[in-house]
TrEMBL record:
PANTHER family hit by this protein: ACYL-COA DEHYDROGENASE (PTHR43884), ISOVALERYL-COA DEHYDROGENASE, MITOCHONDRIAL-RELATED (PTHR43884:SF12)
UniProt EC number: 3.13.1.4
Family the entry assigns: Belongs to the acyl-CoA dehydrogenase family.
Protein name, UniProt field: 3-sulfinopropanoyl-CoA desulfinase
Species lineage: Bacteria, Pseudomonadati, Pseudomonadota, Gammaproteobacteria, Cellvibrionales
């Protein structure tokens, strides 16, 4: 990895230790959005990584997004997730009109927060089941529907909404930008979650919600293709988030097993414990290698990147769950107490195997594409 990336990693790691970690247990316990960490991240420009400099961003490539996701999640997955949610707004830079682009600097600077709305009660893995509609009217569009499980719901200022613009059995979708103060948008109750409790999640409801024409991104029937392209980068950020949890759990396990003394010596010296630590390291390092291979493939526009992104998602997020599970085991009874960070990491890990395309769906993509990709 080149020097710029390594330097960036050290900077974000230091930032995460100093400005993010101190809030992690509290925002989890009280289910509060990471206000302090999000605000502090603005000074470092983390929200603006993928945006061009003319829009107030740092014109960073996907590698920087992934490094930031990993390093933040190493200490706090909720903070990592809420910051990564800003990045999808860069869809506007490439596909939006000039009036929409005026919204970008606010998001790139972290002054405004964003969420993206795809999932619905009946449409999780099955996007074709989406029922939310956008109907063309004079001067704009009227949106009706119910989006479920929206990260930053109620907390964000702007929402990217995928809605049907054609009939219910065709693939015409538009992506619309809706503001939290627009007439006709409302928010469900905050979900009481198992993990990543510092990232707000709720329903976002559209009831005769009118948005002007310029709030439609690009062509009103090409939304799915715009979203799909950006979802690939988002999948790699989520993979990195999983990897960060795995690395953080490994850090906790190594520190604890070197401190904890039983039968007259640190438990790290027992052969079975050494075996577990070694297996955890292998999971972390092998998933890291796969992730960074997929990132490079995407940056270089290589074929087969969808399959490799899915492989990275499986490897990194399964590693998060497995390594966190083993790390709790190595903490003994203490790992079951909320006083220890590993208890939170264990809960935070689970959702990474489910959201942003569940790992079963990822496996389906890998298996379906096995004949098309060059493996090895
Ligand atoms: C905390 C959190 C944050 C989220 N943030 C967002 C967000 O910001 N924006 C957004 O749009 N969505 C968001 N989601 C939604 C998330 O992406 C979905 O929950 C996820 O895609 C799975 O959909 P589902 O929950 O409806 O499960 P389902 O699709 O009903 O799946 C249930 C189970 O069946 C399996 N399954 C389904 N279909 C198949 C198949 N064809 N083959 C094999 N197995 C299958 C799944 O893998 C899963 O195990 C979030 C969810 C959570 C919990």
């Amino acid at each position: 990895m080149n020097e710029i990336y390594e330097e960036f990693r050290s900077t974000v790691r230091r930032f995460a230790e100093e400005k993010v970690k101190p809030h992690a247990a509290m925002i989890d316990r009280d289910s509060l959005a990471p206000e302090e960490a999000f605000e502090a991240a603005r000074a470092l420009g983390l929200q603006g990584i993928p945006f061009p400099e003319e829009f107030g961003g740092s014109d960073g490539d996907l590698m920087l997004q992934v490094i930031a996701s990993e390093e933040l999640a190493r200490v706090c997955a909720s903070t990592s997730l809420t910051i990564a949610s800003s990045w999808l707004f860069s869809i506007i830079v490439e596909n939006g009109n000039d009036q929409l682009k005026e919204l970008v600097p606010g998001v790139a600077s972290g002054e405004k927060k964003t969420g993206w709305c795809m999932t619905e009660p009946q449409a999780g893995s099955d996007l074709m089941a989406i029922k939310t509609t956008a109907k063309k009217v004079d001067g704009g569009w009227v949106i009706n529907g119910n989006k479920r499980f929206i990260t930053n719901g109620g907390w964000a200022d702007w929402y990217l909404v995928l809605a049907r613009t054609g009939s219910s059995d065709d693939r015409s979708f538009g992506v619309f930008v809706v503001g939290k103060d627009d007439k006709g948008i409302s928010f469900g109750a905050k979900e009481d979650k198992m993990g990543q409790r510092g990232s707000p999640t709720c329903d976002v409801i559209f009831d005769e919600c009118f948005v002007a024409d310029f709030r439609c991104i690009g062509e009103p029937d090409k939304g799915l293709s715009y979203f799909k392209e950006y979802l690939l980068t988002s999948r790699l950020s989520i993979s990195a988030l999983g990897l960060g949890i795995a690395q953080g759990a490994l850090d906790e396990a190594v520190a604890y097993t070197n401190e904890r003394v039983q039968m007259g010596r640190p438990i790290a010296q027992f052969q079975m414990v050494k075996g577990m630590i070694a297996d955890m390291v292998v999971k972390v390092e092998s998933s890291r290698a796969l992730l960074y291979k997929a990132v490079n493939m995407l940056i270089e526009g290589q074929p087969g990147v969808e399959a490799f992104s899915s492989m990275a998602k499986i490897a990194c997020t399964d590693a998060a769950m497995d390594v966190a599970n083993d790390a709790v085991q190595l903490h003994g009874g203490y790992g079951y107490l909320k006083e220890y960070a590993i208890e939170r990491m264990f809960r935070d890990a689970k959702i990474t195997q489910i959201y942003d395309g569940s790992n079963q769906i990822m496996r389906q993509i890998v298996a379906d594409q096995i004949n098309k990709v060059q493996v090895g």
